[in-house]
Amino acid sequence: MKTQKPYFAFIKQRINAAHRIIIAGHTGPDFDNVGSCLALYEVLRAMRKGVVIASDFHESIWREVAMDKLPNQVKMSSLALYKPDVVFLLDYGKKEKIDASVLWLIEQTKPFVITIDHHEYQSQFGDIVWVDSAFVSTTEMLHMLFSKIKARIPEQANYYLLLGVWGDTGAFAYQRASKRLLRMVNALVTQGDEIQRIMELLHQKMDADEFRLYGKLLASISYDASLGLGVCKIRTQIPEGMNRTVMYEMKRIKGLRVALFLKRFAKTGYWKASVWGAQHNVLDLNEFARRFGGGGHFNAAGFKTKLSGAKIIQMVKQAMRENCVSS
Ligand SMILES: [Mn+2]
């Protein structure tokens, strides 16, 4: 059955009947992605389901988030041997952002595929495709699913669900908070320290060398006050996750509308761009990123390109100018 609607009862039936479930997010995972996978994992485990997350957990974000509670690992190369009944695909937007070995596994073993994603509809696929960009994060959708199917949410999953919301809304700085979302937050804060834990995660702790490097990055930020565009452009190696911290910091600039982070990969010559919108941003960054084959959300998107850094900055400025005129 192909559907754009969330058939909660139907998903529940499939979970109940399943023996082995695989959960996959997108490559280059962020907090919402990791939080979604881990929250669903914990809930399915509490339902006594056989479940694995399709990841080798190479990216440090997995360890940062899960700490000592990282799930048991099944090698990506032996995933097909696991013979899943159901595969959940979470928070990925485009089919090519799913790991190739997961796509291969789906081809080979023909499991029932359920997509849950708050990105705009792009090339998501499956037997159930629940895609709704009115949700701020995929964890918000999962929370709704869990309550609709009356699944028990284990303590640890509370924190994962909150993490997705905090990560994708920038602690509510760049997405609207609905009453429903705040009710969800209210329900999930049980110990009282969840939000502190999350804020510590988002603002990573650094050693002295990293701290100096971070200072240099901040000092290199250029700012166009007439447009409200902040740019950080780097060619050197930085620790994983530091780009995110720089972006959060840039959003503190008074009057900032768009923050652009550019990183050049020497080997391939590609620039990787992340763009974040602040409160008064009117430029649809998802649409902008799509010009380069990238994507994301209205206020947060990314793309890769072989164009020069200067050219990318020029194009962002041009788009911001055009948008000011038209809006
Ligand atoms: Mn997300």
UniProtKB/TrEMBL annotation:
Residues 20-163 form the DDH domain. The lineage of its organism: Bacteria, Candidatus Brenneribacteriota. InterPro entries: DDH_dom, DHH_sf, Oligoribo/pAp-PDE_c-di-AMP_PDE. It comes from the Bacteria. Gene3D superfamilies: 3.10.310.30, inorganic pyrophosphatase (n-terminal core). This is DDH domain-containing protein.
